[in-house]
């Protein structure tokens, strides 16, 4: 019984077992992995700032743009062609506004004897802008609103001519011709045509 091993118990061998991968091969693989990681970081450069897409840092591009300034040398050598005299106006052309005078009606007054005398009294003239006449009151009111949006006064005057009803859009009155012309130019900038009427 002394030389026999018991059942269920195996004998341990005292021989050293051979590892599956030799130590030198494992060390070589580990060194290669570290080198590959280092090369990948050097190519990727996560610590470097990101360059914007519209920045051009190429030296070739810089050279091409510097060549574009040749006109400094070419310009003094150019010959200047004068403008023909018939193309230049002699005096600046100014367009004067057209002013229409409305007919004046004489004002009745009483004389010393109590008789009615019609005399034309000197009245300070005023100016209005006649914009347009419409047969439709809604169109006239829409044009009046456009004039009001330009900061000018406007009203619609109803009148009848030859049995037809017209709605005239006018702006004013203005105390001077100059004020009426300025108002007319304001309307022209908004695409609204008008004429100055002196009353």
Automatic annotation (TrEMBL):
Could you tell me which PROSITE patterns the record lists for this protein? Answer: SPOR
Q: Where is the SPOR domain?
A: 121-199
Q: Per the UniProt record, which residue ranges are transmembrane?
A: 21-44
Pfam families (UniProt xref): SPOR
- A single GO molecular function, which one? peptidoglycan binding
Q: Which UniProt keywords apply?
A: Membrane, Transmembrane, Transmembrane helix
One GO CC term of this entry?
A: cell division site
Among InterPro entries, the record links this protein to: Cell_div_SPOR-domain (IPR052521), SPOR-like_dom (IPR007730), SPOR-like_sf (IPR036680)
Question: One biological-process term from Gene Ontology?
Answer: cytokinetic process
The name on file for this protein is Sporulation related protein
- State the organism of origin: Acinetobacter calcoaceticus
- Upper taxonomic lineage: Bacteria, Pseudomonadati, Pseudomonadota, Gammaproteobacteria, Moraxellales
């Amino acid at each position: 019984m002394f030389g026999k091993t018991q059942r269920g118990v195996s004998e341990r061998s005292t021989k050293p077992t051979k590892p599956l991968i030799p130590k030198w091969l494992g060390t070589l693989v580990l060194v290669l992995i570290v080198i590959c990681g280092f090369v990948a970081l050097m190519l990727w450069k996560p610590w470097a700032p990101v360059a914007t897409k519209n920045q051009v840092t190429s030296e070739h591009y810089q050279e091409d743009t510097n060549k574009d300034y040749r006109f400094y040398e070419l310009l003094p050598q150019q010959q200047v062609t004068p403008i023909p005299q018939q193309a230049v106006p002699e005096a600046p052309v100014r367009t004067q506004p057209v002013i229409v005078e409305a007919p004046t009606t004489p004002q009745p007054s009483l004389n010393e004897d109590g008789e009615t005398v019609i005399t034309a009294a000197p009245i300070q003239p005023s100016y209005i802008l006649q914009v347009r006449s419409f047969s439709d009151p809604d169109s006239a009111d829409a044009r009046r609103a456009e004039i009001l949006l330009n900061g000018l006064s406007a009203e619609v005057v109803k009148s009848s001519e030859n049995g037809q009803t017209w709605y005239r859009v006018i702006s004013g009155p203005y105390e001077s011709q100059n004020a009426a012309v300025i108002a007319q130019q304001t309307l022209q900038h908004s695409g609204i045509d008008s004429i100055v009427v002196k009353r």
